[in-house]
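Quick one: structure tokens for this chain, please?
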Amino acid sequence: MVTIFNEIFGWTFVFMAGKTIAHILASCMAFLEKDAEVTNIEIRLSNFLITSLCIVNFILVMMNGSTVTTESSKTAFLCYKLQEHFPPKSDERLEILILAKQVRANNVKITAADFFEINRNTLCGILATTTTYVIVVLQFNGIF
């Protein structure tokens, strides 16, 4: 099921990450322009708000991907704990054991078309990449 989900939505996550990075960079570049007119403040503010919405949207997706991975690891633990409540040779206990083995063997990871995992670490990577890019642009523009 997870591989089907990753195949269907993987490229959507890739484009969502690209769109978020592009919005962050465009917003930073708009605020760092030297030739800013006072009339462009509304445009800059709306650009910043749209960028904020893109970031919040992508953060929610990343948090959900991280939660799916965490909860799948808890499922195996709960299966092993639940086995204690059934007789040793019962069919229910055997089914729960099989489920626990399946869950442990198939780690659930939400990915963006198998390029990167969708989890909390992705946000740090995006922020590091965009911060590096903004610093390089600032140095080339002679602001610092």
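The chain has a mean pLDDT of 83.
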